[in-house]
Structure prediction request, 324 residues.
Amino acid sequence: MQPKNTIKTDKVADAHVQNWSDKWLPAKSRPYTRLMRLDRPVGVWLLLWPCFWGQILALTEAEINGGLYSVTFWAQVKYVVLCFTGAIIMRGAGCVYNDLVDYKYDMQVERTKSRPLPAGDISTGQAKKFLFFLLLAGLMVLIQFNWFTIFVGAASLILVAIYPWMKRFTYWPQAFLGLTFNWGALVGFGAVNGYLSNAGLLLYAAGFFWTIGYDTIYAHQDKDDDMMVGLKSTAILFGNKTKMWLTILYALFVTCLTVSGLLAGFGLVFLGLMPLLIAQLIWQIYKLDLDDGDLCLKLFQSNIMFGGAVTLVFLIGYLAIGVV
Prediction:
C-alpha cells in the first residue's frame, strides 16, 4: 500500500533497478550501497571535480610564485587518491544523513519513495550506525592531509549537517548545496599549498554558482511534488524565469573561474579554451524544458562531463605555463 498523499508522477529517476550491486554483492549489503547511492555515482563526480580544480590551481600558483614547491609528484598522486576516496565516503555519508532527515517526505514523492529508508529495506537505527562508520572512515582519510587541510575539511561538517534542513525553511537550498559540494576546492587547494589565496576562494565561489545552476535543473523534476508536501527549492522560486537565472548563475561561474585562473597564473591557452566551456553551459540553457523531467535529469548529468572538461582545461593551462 502506498503512503497516504503519495504524489503521482512519471518521474522515477531513483526507482530501484538492477545494477552491479545486485549482481556482485551479498543481499544484506545491497540496501547500504543504495543508501550511499553507489549505484548512482553522479554526486561523487560533482563532489570530486572541485577537489581536482583546487589541486591544479594551487600547483599553478605555486609554480608561478616559487618555481619549486615542497609537494612531490607522488604526494600529488596521493592527494588525488585521497580526494577520490574521500568523495565517495563523504558523498555516501551525506546521502545517508539526508535520507535520515527526509525519509518521511521521501515516502510521499514518487521519485524517492523506493529509497531504502522510506521503502523499509533498512531501519533508521541501522542507517545511523552506518553513518557513524562512514564518518569514521572519512576521518581516517582526512587525517592524511596537512593540519590546515584537516581543519578546513572538518569545518565542512557544519554545512553537511545544515543542508538537508534548508528545503524546509528557504527557497535557496541549492545555495547551501553549493557551499557544501564545492568545499573540496578549498581542500584540494589547501592540501597543496597549506593556505587559501584569493584564487582559491574565487574558485570556490565559481563552484558555488555552478552548483546552484545544475541543481536547479535537477530540482525541476520534483517541483510539483515539493510544493505538495511543503518543501522549497530554487526551481519553485525561479519558475518560468529559470533560464534567465541560469544565465546569470553560469555567467557568474565563468567570471569567477576565469579570474581565479588568471590570478593563479594561467595564460592565453587557458583563456582560449574557456569558450568551449561556455558553449556547453549555453547548450544546457538552450535545451532545457522545465516540464520534461527526463531531459532535466540528462542535462543535470551532463555536468559530470562538464566538470571533467574544466579539469582538463585547468590541466592544460598548468602544463602551458611559460609556453604562452
Summary: The first helix runs from residue 20 to 24. Residues 270 and 313 are 7 Å apart (CA to CA).
